[in-house]
């Protein structure tokens, strides 16, 4: 009669080794995950702090000579206390600051800094005192904007300087209202909010955020649509149009009259 094999209850010699390896792998995975989470939190906090510190360093290296070490202003440049991040973003990202040369007003040109550097300086200035913030994407959304209303508000408040077609115009003492074609929506909003250079401030009590979006939509409509009245003559307004009629229209009539009267009977 065959003897049945008895179970001894002993594990295979490799079982303990396998359990040990599995435990080490699990412990290592948990440790790595916890370390990554902690590192991400620390990195996020460090980035925020470094952003402000970097902004201060950029400001001291590029702006303090005119605006003061503490942004308090000097005879060469105004105080930046309370101007907010919106003003920094507009001036820096349109290339007006730092000034290329001394003149009646800053000229728009290629920005000298990246958007990240501009944001860092904006955070540094905003940390000194409250001021207008950079507009959010939600505020700049013109999907539901009223273009007709924007055109009306623009003609009432802006056309006397920027021209009804946004072509810009001359001011006194060598200053000018710039052309508003192909301007980024954020910069249009920031200009209304902060009143750069010769421009008055249109805060939310003067022109609401919704009305600002309407104005932006109107200006972008002008970018995408040619003059419906025919040749726009540079969109310089009724003076240029009247001069054109006087020189070419009336001149043509005189020329035709002279030609007719000079013909023999």
Q: Major β-sheet, in short?
A: 2 strands, antiparallel
Number of strands: 2
The CATH first-level class of the largest domain comes to: Mainly Alpha
**What's the structural domain tally?**
2
Protein name: Cytochrome bc1 complex cytochrome c subunit
Binding site for heme c 2: 158, 161-162
Domain Cytochrome c: 50-129, 145-223
EC number: 7.1.1.8
Brief account:
With 265 residues, the protein is an all-alpha fold.
Q: Care to describe what's here?
A:
By secondary structure, this protein is an all-alpha fold. It has two domains: 103 residues, Cytochrome c-like domain (Cytochrome Bc1 Complex, Chain D, domain 2, Orthogonal Bundle); 91 residues, Cytochrome Bc1 Complex, Chain D, domain 2, CATH 1.10.760.10. Helix content is 56%, strand content 2%. It contains ten helices and two strands; from the N terminus they run αααααααββααα. A two-stranded antiparallel sheet has the order 1-2. Strand 1 and strand 2 form a beta hairpin. Helix 1 packs across helix 4 and helix 3 packs antiparallel against helix 4. The longest helix has 50 residues. It is elongated. The chain starts with 12 loop residues before the first helix and ends with a helix.
Which helices and strands occur, and which strands form pairs?
Layout: H1 13-62, H2 64-67, H3 84-93, H4 115-128, H5 137-140, H6 147-157, H7 159-162, E1 169-170, E2 176-177, H8 185-194, H9 209-224, H10 238-262
Antiparallel strand pairs: 1-2
């Amino acid at each position: 009669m065959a003897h049945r094999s008895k179970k001894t209850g002993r594990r295979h010699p490799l079982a303990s080794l396998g359990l040990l390896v599995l435990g080490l792998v699990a412990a290592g995975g948990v440790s790595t995950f916890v370390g990554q989470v902690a590192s991400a939190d620390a990195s996020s906090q460090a980035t925020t702090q470094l952003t402000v510190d970097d902004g201060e360093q950029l400001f001291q290296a590029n702006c303090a000579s005119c605006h003061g070490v503490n942004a308090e202003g000097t005879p060469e440049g105004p105080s930046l206390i309370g101007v907010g991040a919106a003003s920094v973003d507009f001036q820096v990202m349109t290339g007006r600051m730092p000034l290329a040369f001394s003149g009646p007003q800053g000229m728009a040109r290629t920005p000298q800094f990246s958007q990240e550097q501009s944001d860092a300086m904006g955070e540094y200035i905003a940390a000194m005192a409250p001021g207008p913030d950079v507009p959010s994407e939600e505020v700049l959304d013109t999907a539901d904007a009223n273009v007709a209303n924007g055109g009306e508000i623009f003609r009432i408040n802006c056309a006397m300087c920027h021209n009804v077609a946004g072509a810009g115009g001359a001011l006194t003492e060598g200053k000018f209202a710039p052309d508003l074609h192909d301007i980024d929506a954020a910069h249009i909003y920031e200009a209304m909010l902060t009143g750069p250079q010769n421009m008055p401030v249109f805060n939310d009590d003067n022109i609401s955020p919704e009305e600002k979006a309407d104005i932006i939509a109107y200006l972008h409509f002008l970018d995408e649509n040619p003059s419906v009245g025919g040749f726009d003559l540079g969109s310089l307004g009724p003076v240029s149009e009247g001069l054109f009629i006087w020189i070419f229209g009336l001149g043509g009539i005189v020329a035709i009259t002279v030609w007719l009267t000079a013909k023999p009977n």
